Amino acid sequence: MESIVKRWIFDFLKWKQKARLLEKIVVLFIFALLTGVSAQIFIKLPFTPVPITGQVFMVLLSGVLLGKKHGCLSQMIYIVGGIAGIPWFSGGKSGFLFIPTFGYIIGFVPAAWIVGYLYERNVRNIRECIFAMLVGIAIIYLFGAAWFSLLLGTNLEETIKMAVVPFIPFDILKAYLAGYFAFYLFSKTDQNML
Question: How crowded is residue 99: how many other Cβ atoms within 10 Å of its Cβ?
Fold first, then answer.
């Protein structure tokens, strides 16, 4: 099984370097779709209008697997698609949403870029990989909390209590899962083979 995984990753990395424009666009749309599907995995919390979702996991993986530029572009497609009417925001919503969660969605773009950037700087161990994921999550929080506060008129303390603190344990878990998954995948591939 390990040799199959190693071969698949090697083939993906090799393909990623030589893929034609149309193939890259298809992959970007696939990752946007996966982000949309993961948005449908959500848990509403009674004390905040922001749900726990699966999107963050896909945002982090898009940065690692697609790289900074393409990971970022996949999340831009996700946002533009949702604004244009594809019902793939959390809970099947679409359109330009004047809702408290839209800032997090905007934060997906720079988060995917920074995770890809940090990973491309040759992450050497699992700690560095998880650190890259946590930085991506911090960026999502920054955008999410700013939009939340602006839209609802909350002060800093209220914003942190309702838009950041409830999600920290879940997002740390997502960072660890995405970090271990990505590091495991790429540690199985000899980069010198490319």
Answer: 19
Q: How many domains does the chain have?
A: 1
Instruction: Tell me the per-residue pLDDT of 51-96, one tens digit each, with 9 for 90 and over.
Output: 999 999 999 999 988 989 999 999 999 999 999 988 888 877 777 7
| pTM, to two decimals | 0.86
Q: What is the CATH number of the domain that holds 73?
A: 1.10.1760.20
Instruction: List the domain range (segments joined by +) for residue 113.
Output: 2-193
Q: Which residues fall within 8 angstroms of residue 90, CB to CB, at 6 or more apart?
A: 39, 40, 42, 51, 53, 55, 101
DSSP string, 8-58: HHHHHHHHHHH--HHHHHHHHHHHHHHHHHHHTSEE--TT-SPPEESHHHH
Q: Given this model, what pLDDT does residue 24 score?
A: 83
Burial class (CB in 10 A: 0-12, 13-18, 19+), 44: exposed
